[in-house]
Specification:
The complex is a heterodimer. By secondary structure, chain A is an alpha/beta fold. Chain A contains 13 helices and 17 strands. By secondary structure, chain B is an all-alpha fold. Classes of the chains: A alpha/beta, B mainly alpha. At the A-B interface, helix 1, helix 2, helix 3 and strand 2 of A face helix 6, helix 7 and helix 8 of B.
Chain lengths: ~375, ~250
Amino acid sequence: MGGSVASVAGREPTLEVDFALVGHQESWRAAADVLAVLRGPERTPLPDDEIKDILPWIPPRAVCHVDVGSIVSTKIGGAKARGLYIDSFIPPDRLEAAYVHENIARVRGAAACAIKAGAKIVSLGGFSSILIEGNFDQLPERHDTVFTTGNTLTVGFIVQGIKKMCALEGRDIHRSTLLIVGATGDVGSGCARCLAPIVRRVLLSARNMERLRSLAAELQADGAQVEISADLERFSAEADVVICAASLASPSLLLGRITPHALVCDAGYPKNLSPRAEMLGAKVFFGGLGQITGGLKFAPDFHGILNRHPFPDVVHGCLLEGMALALEGRFEPFSQGRGSITQERVEEIETIAARHGIYLAPLYNADGPVEDRLHCQTEWSRG
Amino acid sequence: MQPLIGLNCSTIECTSLSPSALIWQDVLAQAMTGELVAAMNYTSLSEMCDDPEEIADALEHAEGERGHAAAFAAEGRKIGVDVPNNVDAKHWKRLRDAFMRCITERDFIGCLIVQEIMLESFAVASYARVAKVAPGSLGKTFASIAAEEEEHVDHAMSILRTERALDAQRFDDKVYRLHLDVMTTLAQMLAKECKDGHCEVCHSSCVKPSLSEVSLSAAELRGASLQQYLKTLDLLGIPGEVTLAWVAQLPV
């Protein structure tokens, strides 16, 4: 053990870190799995009560090294980027507004770890991205490190997923009524800008009416037919395509009245929509996920632990954005702030990602894959 | 071994006290024993040093730790309890033995790692938690001693960082070896339940289940201590992913 520890420690001064991924565990089960890997197979896993006692005290820190490969060839093989996964160790039961200050402090701590490690670009994953998109000024002094929320590529994969699902289901997206829940957030508004020009009608729902009005005016100026409401129930029976860009505290507000056979993209965080009997045939799928085809390695090996998806090398779009930019050698804060994601920027990051073999992930939901895996990879992912 | 500061360990005077006084008695007993072990460690360190400045420094630290022990004893008297101590209690003896192995090897850096990084992390964090909930002067004493202990750590950090800069891998290996020895014992001490019998410091049964009565918990004291330890290792420059695995592998 001493030898292996020494060898890991010894890597520190020699390894250049291109990117860092800041994340956290979505569930206690996931946290338990991470700790089990760290404890090693020779030690018994920690009991659940001990994990709940210990995890909140762990300061933000790197958990593992991450190498991502590109499909772009160089003289010495495929291009690669090296990174770190840094966990903010936000306890899974504190992923909510009541803990916002504590959680921002944790993300700040994780950001400081990334800066200390010399990461050139940092992607803020999951809840970290949501916390920071309106609070970039709260990140520590940056030196040579840039931060991106990764929201632009997330939007790209959500939009690709919607188009793909419509095609798989034989729907004409141009005749759809699109409902976006959480429409005024960075991801929600980005989806609205990308899809409003191609759907028949757009329904925007969010809590802040002022921001809703502003977004609606912007979309209407470009010719879109837009309606807004802070009352989700008003719209839920009217849409046949739904993007949940915000995690729903009460999914029944949407699902209880949803149109039969609606397509529902769960792009919120955490994802909490699952196919249910009362949904009358509505099809739910998780949005915003991409798949790396050039290779993804963790050291220590956290495959299937840090990326818990039913398909290999699937990662949230927000994290993939930093990896794609690192592979491209573009160390810039591609996504920052709220409300600035445009279709042009989405296309730009999609092009960069695809150049390095990062495509839309096969679609799935809490019950598993929602499409034929082979079809997914051949027809759409590489398109 | 008799208590280093001679006190009557019986609780006969305590029968009319509030239940919380008896809980504080045990908390103080652990703190006082820790301070006395630290005083012994610094005294041993002074005997190993050649540099007069280092000798004086170590003796000053030893005197400071004895002062802390006396302050804890005084706080006990204020709430009507005698504060026992037992540096030969099983966990504390193992910690003392680990330190003495460094002395035997004339390993000055090892001594600093054990005392300043590991034992002081535990002291600083647990005293700070106790200070938040302990009433009156008891809380103030824990807070001021926590602050003083933190100064010790700062003093040692510059020496240890210089040492690590010479050969990071060798330094990290040394910390890991000592971690396995010392932190395993501390983790057993800090476990939510004492699974291997009486700790030989608490005056009767284990105090841990009663800590909630004074707004503390064994889990909180352990969590705060491990957090402080990880942060201290971060300041030394040891990679966070390495120290995370070290801590994750400790017994619970």
